[in-house]
Batch of 2 targets.
Target 1
Amino acid sequence: MKKLFATTAAVALMAGSAMAEEIKLGVLLGFTGPIESTVAHMAPAAHMAIKEVSDSGKLLGGATVVGINGDTTCVDSGAATAAAERLITSDGVKGIIGGDCSGVTGAVLTNVAVPNGVVMISPSATSPGLSHMNNEDNGLFFRTAPSDARQGVVMTEVLMEQDIKEVAVTYTNNDYGKGLADAFQAAYEAAGGKVTINAAHEDGKADYSAEVGALAAAGGQRLVVAGYVDQGGNGIVRAAIDTGAFDTFHFPDGMISDQLVKNFGSEIDGSSGQHPSPSEELAARFKEVADAAGGDWEPTTPFAPESYDAAALIMLAMQAAGSTDANVYKDKIIEVANAPGEKINSGELAKGLEILAAGGDIDYVGGTGVELVGPGEAAGNYREIMIEGGTDKTVRYR
């Protein structure tokens, strides 16, 4: 009897394996464009979560998961929507990790994801305007990065604590830049600070001397550069240093990466900044997980752990729902992200899948301490930095 049972179980297992689904997920990020040096870390983090789940064999009875890249360019909405359409219609992805920059993310959501009923979880689109799309997104859009409405407040706190009461602001002329600049100005002025000028700059220019001249004429103790490190933000900083217009800066998330200190080193000593980041403890754990996975990239780069978490949440929600249908598993994303339930850290996705398969509850912590609020966006923690000796050093986590 035991032999018959064992044989029957083996046949059932073989049949299940033969029927195991291949699930495709889109990794829709700016592989080219003004944040490609950041995406060079974000994409591997998303694929790390995908491989972790696929290798476990525990998703939906042994499904394998494949990540397929699509390029948003960060700034070209036409290219981003075309890439998303290919992922959905040609590749048949069941969810999208992305987009990255706010403008292209909104375009893809409105024109592609919602009409096709596909879930998007962005690891880095931070425009406050995206918070208001929950009335139009059919519950398909989530973010593992916090809104820039929160970042504006954190920027204000950082600068005020350094007794910086007067700043000039320049921002990249798109949804991300304007949203952040406006959120910061509102918070900073409410706290008693003065913004001498709040001016847009265009990316892709060879010469930013005119923009820097206007910023210098307005004056300020520090120049806030809400731009991109691989694009106009870099040009602004270089022109400001070369002309002596400003010698210290404040850098929001779009400017902070390894490339910033590679470009300027000790020339920007004394500058400050912040970016969404897990706590020191979570960051250390995530680095251990990444190192064990054989990654040759720096896992604590901004938005890398958020990318891992975006991918993980999609797959955990599928397991909780017992389905790869976005219109079914979308309702499980906040449920698996938040309490109650057993806490699941980065590197523990197999454990989370097992608990969900058994009908249990999880509280996904992941790489960033995920907690989704409001319309499904991260509550947000930030790493404050100072540039000292040509490196970005952690001051504290907020």
Target 2
Amino acid sequence: MDKTVVELFAGVGGFRCGFNDVEFDGNDVSEKNNWNFVWANQWEPSTKTQAAFDCYCERFGKSDNHVCKDIHEITTKEMDKIPNHTLLVGGFPCQDYSVARSLSNEKGIEGKKGVLWWDIARILESRTPPFVLLENVDRLLRSPSTQRGRDFGIMLRTFLDNGYAVEWRVINAAEYGFPQRRRRVFIFAYHQSTKYYEKMCKIPAEQLIYTKGIFASNFPIKDVHSDKNRKKNISSEYFNDIVSVSDGFDFHFFNAGCMINGKIYTYKVEPIECKDISTLGDILENEVDDKYIISDEEKLEKWKELKGSKKIERTKPNGETYCYSEGAIAFPDHLDRPARTMLTSESTTNRSSHIIAVDENKDIYRTLTPVEAERIQMFPDNWTKIESKSMTERRRYFMMGNALVVGVVAKLGHYLEKIVENED
């Protein structure tokens, strides 16, 4: 079986960087592994410029198979342009996936926000890739707030309808030695036509989660299983079809689980944390331009205020008052710990931006540099520094806030190589 990959919502190429152990010297890109990325799609609907796509093409070359177009248009009108592939990957946005029956009693999409998942579903149905690896924010498992677990239940039912088994895990990158406290859910699916499916479906769910599955093999967890750590499994009859899931499914998904032979099992697991941690201090540049120094005293005071604890009285729309409170964030950031989760607003004057002490005794502080933001996500230095008007310095931070931790997918990519090779 060939190691061909289709990359959806590609961003600046995080999956490709991880899977192929990409190196970049400022001029040339070297892909050390031989995953063949045969098609990639990146399109940002909210901006006229396409900075992420420009960066992807700058690093991996312009190609007819590097496509900057609404994925919905492609999956509904031009599916033939997506080649067959062994592995489908993507870090897709977390949105509303509710559905409703149409007048003809077929499945329909309720609300325009749900289209992105259905584009993935159309590819599963049309191309049926043997393997799928997806990444999303961990709140996916409990969304929406009005019907906990519905969105993820819809996804599992979609996989089941297309002949897949699924395993998932919430992974905090910092717990496994990476330089950022970033929690994301990873979803791995494998089709019933594969040898891997035949093998894994014979393994009890508990073993799959704790020792045998892809996530346990790469991100080990404590061997603690008790009744309180497992939700009662449920069968496919409980989520009969897509619409019944949307209408009535309500289930507490824990941070690990699997769907095997039409049954869902979910476990609350604890990581075996890596003893060798990567810290924020480890990734800082030795020499930093003075423009990153916070020279405006008023702005510095604003930052201190934003990061402090606070209690604020607010009023609901009905006139009822309540107290909004939040705890303090370290100021400046601790250099002996992994970085906090980086957001798209990094470096702007807001509560979540990282602040580095240059000389705390003299009250001198700075923001992160774009290179440091890239290092937190484990991209090569200056990966997003391209000669394009679309990629401003502010956009470089934005790209990294949207990216994934390259080191996490690198581990999964290396393991997937063995899985694919064993198919032969």
